[in-house]
Each structure stands twice: as structure tokens, then as C-alpha cells.
Design a protein that fits this description.
The protein is α/β, with parallel strands linked by helices and about 425 residues long. The protein contains 13 helices and eight strands. The strands form two sheets. A five-stranded mixed beta sheet has the order 6-5-4-7-8, with helices on both faces. Strands 2-1-3 form a three-stranded antiparallel beta sheet. The chain is globular, with a radius of gyration of 26 Å.
Length: about 425
């Protein structure tokens, strides 16, 4: 029985650590999901607090997993874990019954589970909790209290650092589809794009407001300023059948479109433009920092002088746009897409993304962009004109090493001390026998 309890303890810890880390690397993404829930249940007024709520959820879940792994603070850890599961299990059951939100976001963008899979996972975790509650004295304590205190603060610091990176820069580990090297033409339009305009196939956009989903034609999309939120695009055939490659279920498919102030869709035009194109991204111009306006003007002039494209993609809100133009004197081109799409493209606000022939070369927060260096010469003559190589497998390994290296070092020292004591004890016994 003791072996079973410890297996359950470590499995439970692994799920919570992974789930917490997946959210910590991208708390802004978790905040978007929190906002969805708040708006659906009529608490949209609290949306400005969603990032803080996401931070709390990420860190609490991660620390619960760490404590469960170490076997310390058992009662408190089990209590908090129970409260989390009693909150989210009924919620996921409701999602199974209503399908109001397609993805609960329990593992961030790292792993997407269906609502049924999420509910099943929560049921299994609840059964584990019952077993751990009734046998908590048999849970394994991995280390002494002194090192436990140090490791708790250490792991908390790691979680806070990852949350900070994902909130105000870019996620240290990016599971989103808009990564450097992605060919947006293929990901957005697909190889069969030429067939999308046939008479028996039409594209539709799904929007939701106050938990109610509706389907709109591309030429009659709703006004986002009225509370409509973009969900996904679908391909519908004349017989009502949905294409197997619809929306986010499609391999590498990205829900992305842009339109002009006149409502004209220019997605293909933008992604097919030859050469370099700078995209200034802002999901909310009112919330965008205006401290780096000089950088935007410098980039815009540089793009014009070198025949590069420069476009600002933002959520359509005429009042915000007029305020931004008045405050900044912006004369560059503005096009529109849904705010959630822009937040998926780049978490910081504003941010800059560089495309070349529809391929993402890099993306950076505007505040971290060295505009002076970038505009000092032609893009094809400097490293800024190359695809930014980011090895996310290396970053995943680095996070795991940072998390578990102190623990393994502690266990190694403890093992060596134990072996040393055993050796001394054996030597002492031999000396006693000889005497």
C-alpha cells in the first residue's frame, strides 16, 4: 500500500508541475482564457484583473505540485489541490455538456485536450486525492526541512521569472503557431487555398458574445467594439458539412485574417507581398505604450526609404484609432483583425514582427527592439534580416535542469553521505571483530 501511495503522490505532483509550468511560461495566454470565462459568466468587468488571476493560478498550481513531490506541507497542499479540483471539475463537466468553450486551457498551449478528456483527467486526479487524503502519513518526504525551505523559495522564484517573461516580453517557451520560421501563407491559406473560392465551399467566422456563438460570412463580420470575440474560422460546404481541415483542428492551420477600414480582406495580399514587411502589432491601442513612438516613426521611415512594407495590425475600434493617430501623428497604414488573434501572434503591446515573403523572421516587444542598429543598413546585409533561430527544445531542457538540478544535487549529496556512513560503520565492525 505504501508503494501505491508514493506512486500516486509522484504522478499527481508530475501533473500539477507540468500544468503549472505550461501556464507559467505563458500567463498572458492563461489570462486570455480567464477572460473568456469571465465574459461568459457575465463578469467581464473583472477582465482587467485576468492577468493577476492567471499569475495566481499558475504559481499556486506549480507550487502545489512541488510540495506534493517533496512530501512537505501535506495538509495545506492537499487542501489547496482539493479546492482547485472542486472548482474546475464541475466547470469542465459543464463544458462537456454545453461546449461553450472548446478548450479549457488546463495545459496552456502545450497540450490541447477536449472537454471530455479534461473532465476525465480531473476525475482521475480527484480519485488520487481521496487516496492521498486517507493515507497522507504514508506520503514520502523527499528531503529535510532546511533544504525544503530553500527549494520552495527557489522554485517560486523560477515560476515568477517565467511568468514575468511571458507577461511583458515573449514566452520563454513558445507553444503558439506564430514562431520564427513559420510560413504564414501555407499555415493560413493552406495548400488547397485555390479551391476555397469554389461554388460549393464558403468560409465562415465564428464569434461569441456573452457565451453565445454565431456564424458570420466574411463580408459581414460583427463589430468587436460591441463585445464580439473571434473564436475560429471554418470551411462550410454547400451540404452543410464542415471541412475536416476546419479551424484549430487542422494541422498547422492558423486562424488569421486582416481587413482594411473599408472592410476589404487583404490577407492574401499581405502574406504574398514580396520582400520584407514590418508588422506593428497592438491588440489595444489605448493600452499600448507610447514611450517608444520614436522607434515606430524611425521604423516606418526606414521601411519607406527601402521599399519595405510597414503595416499596423490592431483590433478595430475607431475611437482608439483616432486617439492613437492624434497622439502619435501616425501616417502609416492600419489594418484590422481580432484582438485575440493579435495577442496570440505576440503577447507584448505593442510588438513588431518581421515577415519576408510571408514567412515570420522574428518578433520582438517594441521596447526591446534596437531600432537604431536595425535601421543602420539594408536588412539583407545584417543579422536582423535573417530568421531568428530559437531552439525551444533547448529551452525546455534548460527549464527542467533549472528546476530539478538542485534537487538531484541534494539527493546525490545525501546518497554519498549515506554510503560514507555505511563504509565507516563496516570498517568499525571489522575493527571490533579483529580486536
Amino acid at each position: 500500500m505504501k508503494t501505491l501511495i508514493r506512486i500516486v503522490q509522484f504522478l499527481f505532483a508530475a501533473v500539477f508541475i507540468f500544468s503549472g509550468l505550461a501556464k507559467c511560461v505563458d500567463p498572458a495566454g492563461t489570462a486570455i482564457k480567464v477572460t473568456e470565462y469571465l465574459q461568459y459568466f457575465g463578469f467581464g468587468v473583472l477582465s482587467d484583473l485576468s492577468l493577476g488571476m492567471a499569475w495566481i493560478l499558475c504559481i499556486v498550481e506549480f507550487i502545489c505540485g512541488v510540495n506534493m513531490l517533496l512530501g512537505h506541507a501535506r495538509r495545506l497542499t492537499l487542501l489547496v489541490s482539493t479546492l482547485l479540483l472542486f472548482l474546475f471539475t464541475p466547470l469542465t463537466l459543464w463544458l462537456v455538456l454545453t461546449d461553450a468553450i472548446s478548450d479549457c486551457g488546463c495545459f496552456g498551449d502545450a497540450i490541447h485536450l477536449t472537454n471530455v478528456q479534461t473532465f476525465g483527467k480531473n476525475l482521475i486526479l480527484m480519485m488520487m486525492l481521496v487516496l492521498l487524503w486517507t493515507n497522507r502519513e504514508q506520503m514520502y518526504r523527499l528531503m529535510g526541512r532546511t533544504f525544503y525551505v530553500f527549494y520552495s523559495y527557489y522554485s517560486l522564484g523560477l515560476a515568477v521569472w517565467l511568468c514575468w517573461m511571458g507577461s511583458w516580453r515573449e514566452p520563454f517557451i513558445d507553444f503558439r503557431p506564430f514562431t520564427p520560421g513559420t510560413d504564414l501563407r501555407e499555415a493560413v491559406m493552406g495548400e488547397e487555398h485555390s479551391q476555397a473560392s469554389t461554388d460549393d465551399t464558403t468560409w465562415r467566422c465564428i464569434y461569441q458574445r456573452e457565451g453565445i456563438r454565431e456564424e458570420f460570412a466574411l463580408d459581414s463580420l460583427p463589430d468587436e467594439a460591441e463585445g464580439w470575440e473571434f473564436v475560429e474560422t471554418i470551411e462550410r460546404h454547400a451540404d452543410g458539412r464542415l471541412s475536416e481541415s476546419n479551424g484549430k483542428a487542422a494541422l498547422r492551420h492558423i486562424d488569421f485574417y486582416v481587413k482594411t477600414t473599408d472592410g476589404e480582406f487583404i490577407t492574401e495580399e499581405l502574406l504574398s507581398k514580396p520582400g520584407y514587411t514590418f508588422l506593428l502589432l497592438s491588440h489595444s491601442l489605448d493600452k499600448a505604450s507610447q514611450h517608444d513612438i520614436d522607434r515606430i516613426e524611425l521604423l516606418s521611415e526606414y521601411a519607406g526609404d527601402n521599399d519595405y512594407g510597414f503595416v499596423c495590425i490592431t483590433a478595430r475600434d475607431e475611437k482608439q484609432l483616432e486617439r492613437w493617430k492624434y497622439n502619435t501623428g501616425a501616417e502609416y497604414r492600419f489594418v484590422f483583425t481580432d484582438a485575440s488573434v493579435i495577442e496570440t501572434m505576440c503577447r507584448s503591446n505593442p510588438a513588431v514582427m518581421l515577415l519576408r515573403n510571408g514567412v515570420i523572421y522574428w518578433k520582438k516587444p517594441l521596447s526591446k527592439l534596437d531600432a537604431q542598429s536595425l535601421t543602420s543598413g539594408k536588412l539583407n546585409e545584417q543579422t536582423s534580416g535573417d530568421i531568428e533561430e530559437i531552439n525551444y527544445n533547448y529551452r525546455i531542457l534548460l527549464v527542467l535542469v533549472l528546476l530539478f538540478a538542485p534537487l538531484f544535487l541534494y539527493l546525490l549529496v545525501e546518497t554519498l553521505q549515506f554510503l560514507h556512513k555505511q563504509t565507516l560503520k563496516n570498517i568499525s565492525k571489522k575493527c571490533v571483530r579483529k580486536s
